[in-house]
Every structure is written in C-alpha cells, then in structure tokens.
Write a structure and sequence with these properties.
CATH topology of the largest domain: UDP-n-acetylglucosamine1-carboxyvinyl-transferase, Chain
Largest sheet: 4 strands, mixed
Mean pLDDT: 96
CATH superfamily of the largest domain: Enolpyruvate transferase domain
Low-confidence stretches: none
Strand content: 15-25%
Strand order of the largest sheet: 21-22-1-23
Structural class: alpha+beta
CATH architecture of the largest domain: Alpha-beta prism
Bound molecules: ligand EPZ
C-alpha cells in the first residue's frame, strides 16, 4: 500500500495537467443510480479510493458494478436489493450517508450506519433527518444506525438551517420518487448539486432550480437508467492552480468549467497570480512577490472550504500577513502543525488562522491528517527547498486521481514508498 510520498521541492512546475471527474459528483451520482431501473453508465468517474469504497458498498448490496473498456462505469441494481450500509465500509466513507435518500427513494426503507466523525468535524445529520421526516418518513437513531421508513410519503417544503450539500442531495434523491412536490429552501448551490439534478432529470425526473437556494422536485413513479458524463473536479483543478502559483511555474489546467472556479480564480488573482483563459482551460503563472489576502470559506458560490488548506499553503510564502476564517467546518486547521514543521508561521485562534508569510520553506517529515490537508502538504513540499516525507498518504489517494503521475508530468520530483 502506498503509504508515504517523498518530494524534493524547489522546482517550478511547467506543462499541462488534465483534470479528472469530480469526486463529490461521482460519489452522489453512483448512489443515485440505484433510484433507476436498468443499467446506468457513468463517464468521467475518477479512479480514486473513495469511489472504490462506494462501489464495494454497492456490491455488498447486490448491485453489479463494472469498469468498461472505454473507462465508463456500469451500475446495475438487482430487482430486490439490501438497503443497509455495512458498518465496516460505511465508517471508511462519510458519503455513504447518501444512501439514506437513495434507499428511501427506491424502497421506502433504510438502515444507515451513522458516519463516524472525521478529522474536520463532527459531521451531524440533523438536516438530513429533518428532510426525511418532512416527507413522511419515520426515523429512529439507535446502536449507531439511522433506521428510517417512509410511512406516508408526500412531497413537502423543507427549510435547511444550513445549506448542507449532503442534506440537499439526500432530500433531492428521496423527493424525486416521492408523490407530490417538494421544495428545498436555503438549498446548497454547489455545482455537484446541479450535476445531480441534471442526472435525475436525464433519467426522467423533474427537478428545477438546482444551483439556486430554492429547488423544486416533483416526484415521479419511475426513473430510467441512462448514460451520463460527470463534471470535472473544481477542487482538483484549484489544487493544481495553486501548485503552479506556489512553485512560481506556469501550468495549463485542462478540462475545467471556468464558472465553477470563479471563487478560486478571484482569490488567486487577488494574490497577484496571473491567470488567463486558454481554449483548453486556464493557464496559471506564478509570480515572485505574492500579495497576502484574507479568505473566508463559505458555501458555494463563496470560497470553498475544500480549498482552504491549499490556499493557506500559498499564503505561507506571501509577502505579509493573511487572515483565513473557516466558516463551514469546526476543525479544519489540523494541518497547521504540519505546516509549522516546514517553517510556516501560522497562529490559530478558534476559526481564524493568521498566516505570516515567510521567505522560504524547509522540507520535513510530516503526516497528512485528511484529504485536502494532504494535498496542501504536497503543495508546501513542492515549494520547500529540500526533501519532504508525507506519511498517511492514503488520505490523498482518496480524492486525487493519478496525483503522482500528474505532478511528475509537470516536472515535479515526487515518488511513493
Ligand atoms: C460535502 O460534504 C463534501 N463531500 C465535502 O467535501 C465538502 O467540504 C462539504 O460538502 C462542504 O462543501 C461530498 O460531497 C462527498 P455539508 P457534506 O453537509 O455534505 C453542517 C472533500 O474534501 N451540517 O455541506 O458532509 C456540517 O456539520 C469533502 O471533498 C449540519 O449541521 O457537507 C458542516 O459544518 C470534505 N447538519 C456543514 O454543515 C447536517 O445535517 C457543511 O456540511 C449536515 C451538515
């Protein structure tokens, strides 16, 4: 198992990198495919550990899954399938909580292992449960499981106290097969929500308003399996844009949807990084004197929390002091201790990190506390003047397809052991 990544830093990255399909769209679309009868074929699904775990859960439920020769993914649910997520697998993947809406939409019952907390926060499901109950579901929580059954399923209006991505997705999946009209107020507006809406509508569903904070879903009797291509990964794209900036190189980031990247483009340009449109994507060119900036993470279209650690890495070498406020998760500064080992000067006060830029970073032995922090450590290591060894690299392979090959392709000195 590739457990450690070793990087010799100090070299600018040059060249072009192709962005893979979006992890956070692939995970929900793989689950949503069980709402339909027949074989779903998904294109542009990234080969990453989280997808492999999700497919393993599907196979445990009796669903046939297959990677085809053209690299598409086939998903074929049986006529009758289990509607319980196995604890051993569910605890590896928070997104297994998305089976709640899909199981209830397909069979009217669900037994979901409560996702364990993870490094970035407690990850509650109160808004998911509020949605299920609003649509006529009876929910009990016992022995670490959510047990739910649709007693009198009927479309209804649900107000989300926080625009939770997962809660919006679970309610959309359940409502797509629930008689009547459901409205989700203060819905999440992420591009992955729009991708799910387009996918459901491709299968014959009736979802309107995805991408805004008011989504209307009219339930239908049946959804029919179709072929569908997943959107590119805006967080992977942002990560490579920062890689170009932090190494002061020049990289063409290909296969992206620019509108999904606006918050990231805006903040990178504020630091002085040069970004220009190219027919195949965006060209990102690093500069020597990065300006410090302030960042507040917010639900989309605000600055994405999944890019917070990566931007903190960049600000670690800016010419001045930056202030980063994490408004989405309660504990997403774990990587600061590892950054400090590499020479960064960062002070954390609650949800705020004060980053005082330094001239150079040094290599060190560090460990990756979570997926995005791991990616940020790679960025720091690429900028540092000597060798860095990153333990627990398995976190990184959860969400970045071929990251070693992609960085090598840009001239980075990186390997695993
Ligand atoms: C999705 O997680 C993403 N994961 C996360 O990406 C992303 O960081 C997050 O959305 C925010 O954009 C997937 O799509 C698989 P939330 P999700 O529900 O749905 C609170 C990555 O690195 N909340 O929008 O779990 C919660 O505590 C991952 O790719 C409630 O209070 O996120 C958190 O503070 C990390 N009650 C906030 O909302 C609820 O019922 C955002 O959570 C649900 C959530």
């Amino acid at each position: 198992m590739q457990e450690r990544i070793i990087i010799e830093g100090g070299k600018p990255l040059y060249g072009r990198v192709r962005i893979s399909g979006a992890k956070n769209a692939a995970l929900v679309l793989i689950v949503a495919s069980i709402l339909a009868d027949g074989e779903t074929i998904l294109d542009n699904v990234p080969h990453i550990r989280d997808v492999e775990v999700m497919l393993h859960i599907l196979r445990e439920l009796g669903v046939a899954t297959k990677w085809n020769d053209d690299n598409s993914l086939s998903i074929n649910p049986p006529a009758v399938m289990k509607t319980e997520t196995p604890y051993e697998l569910a605890k590896k993947l928070r997104a297994s909580n998305l089976f709640l809406g899909a199981f209830l939409g397909r069979t009217g019952q669900a037994l979901i292992s409560l996702p364990g907390g993870c490094d970035i926060g407690s990850r509650p499901m109160d808004l998911h449960i509020k949605g299920v109950q609003s649509l006529g579901g009876v929910v009990e929580i016992e022995h670490g499981f959510i047990s739910a059954r649709m007693k009198k399923p009927q479309g209804s209006s649900v107000y989300l106290d926080f625009p939770s991505v997962g809660a919006t997705e679970n309610i959309m999946m359940l409502a797509s097969k629930t008689p009547g009209v459901t409205t989700i107020e203060n819905a999440a507006r992420e591009p992955e929500i729009v991708d799910l809406s387009n996918f459901i509508n491709t299968m014959g569903g009736k979802v309107r308003g995805a991408g805004t904070d008011l989504i209307k879903i009219e339930g239908v009797e049946r959804l029919t399996a179709r072929r569908y291509a997943i959107i590119p990964d805006r967080i992977e794209a942002g990560t490579y844009m920062v890689a170009a900036a932090i190494t002061r190189g020049e990289v063409l980031v290909e296969n992206i949807i620019p509108t999904h990247l606006h918050p990231i483009i805006a903040k990178l340009q504020e630091t002085g990084v040069l970004i220009r449109e190219h027919e195949k994507g965006l060209v990102v060119k690093g500069i020597n004197r990065l300006r410090p900036i302030d960042i507040k993470t917010m639900p989309y279209p605000g600055f994405p929390t999944d890019m917070q650690s990566q931007m903190m890495a960049l600000m670690a070498i800016a010419e001045g002091t930056s202030v980063i406020v994490e408004n989405v998760f309660e504990n997403r500064f774990q990587v600061v201790d590892e950054f400090t080992r590499m020479g960064a000067k960062i002070k954390v006060e609650g949800h705020t990190a004060i980053v005082e830029g330094v001239k150079t970073l040094c290599g060190a032995r560090v460990k990756s506390p979570d997926l995005r922090a791991g990616a940020a450590l790679i960025l720091m290591a690429l900028a540092a003047r000597d060798e860095t060894r990153i333990d627990h690299a398995v976190h990184i392979f959860r969400g970045y397809e071929n990251i070693i090959e992609k960085i090598k392709g840009l001239g980075g000195n990186i390997k695993t052991e």
